[in-house]
Amino acid sequence: MLATCSYVGRRQRQRFVAFFGCMYYAMMRPAEVAALTRDDCRLPERGWGRLTFADSSTAAGRACTDDGQVHEHRGLKGRSKGRPASDPRTRRPARNVPVPPELVVLLRDHIERFGTGPDVRLFRSEGGSPIQPSTWWQVWCKVRALGLTPAQQATPLLRRPYDLRHSGVTWRLNSGVPPTEVAAWAGHSVEVLMRVYARCMTGLEDVWIARMDGALHLEDPYPSEAGKDGGATEGGDHVTPGGSA
Questions:
Q1: Where are the alpha helices (DSSP H) in 36-160?
Q2: Please, are residues 144 and 159 in contact by the beta-carbon 8 Å criterion?
């Protein structure tokens, strides 16, 4: 689907490949992706990178923001515990998420092609404004129409851009990453994570048995029968190494 995104539209398409990639590979919410800056990214030339972000940009509407702007910057969801920013007990929330080389490449290519805005944000419109939710919704609808068959489009499969985040969480859980780690990376509590994603772990019994068996049996529990009779041949003669019967 990310590759399909590069073929959608003539002007906006390339801007959203890395945008949607962050939602899948880094389990980010759309508002968190919109607020991502170059300083939040550690993108080595090879190997895994890391995203550390502590802000989100929500399109609340001009009538609902203090400065009259469409987007309102605020802390990560569920992290401030209702305390005002002036409260000394309020900590600056942050998520520190390891990201695979696939996303590192997407972000490096995006920065090389589009640069960053004056506020070093990675994702913005052609005019330099924050990307509106209506825009990435429209792009995703086109991606889905191009990337899925008619039968698949009739199902809930990847119906919303947000489903990319759910798929990213599922991928990490099914890879065997402990739920506590996945919850921290996704910005969930473990309770919420297990309640929402418990069903994605079904149907993998053979995988879990193989992993438990591998951890339990570091050595072969069924050693070969060969050699137990002292090397005797079928006729009872003993064969010495390098010698004859």
A1: 101-114, 133-147, 150-153
A2: yes
SS3 181: helix
Is residue 238 included in any domain, yes or no?
A: no
- Cβ pair 200, 170 in contact under 8 A: yes
**pLDDT, tens only, 151-201:** 999 998 899 998 999 999 989 988 888 999 999 999 988 988 888 886 665
User: Structurally, how many domains does the chain consist of?
Assistant: 1
Residue type, 37: T
Task: Please answer whether residues 193 and 186 qualify as being in contact, where contact means their C-beta atoms are separated by less than 8 angstroms.
Answer: yes
| Terminal Cα distance for the chain, rounded | 68
Structure tokens at 77: 């969801």
What is residue 147's three-state secondary structure?
A: helix
Q: For 112-131, b where at least 16 C-beta lie within 10 A, e where not — what string?
A: eeeebbeeebbbbeeeeebb
Residue 10's domain spans which residues? 2-206
pTM for the predicted model, two decimal places? 0.71
Which helix (H) or strand (E) covers residue 211, if one does? helix 205-216
- Displacement of CA 212 from its chain's centroid (Å): 25
* Amino acid letter, residue 243: G
How far is it, in rounded angstroms, from Cα 236 to Cα 73?
85
- Rounded CA separation 3/236 (Å): 67
For residue 214, is it within any domain? no
Record the tokens describing residue 11, joined without a space: 């002007």
Supply 84's token pair.
Answer: 């005002």
CATH (domain of 80): 1.10.443.10
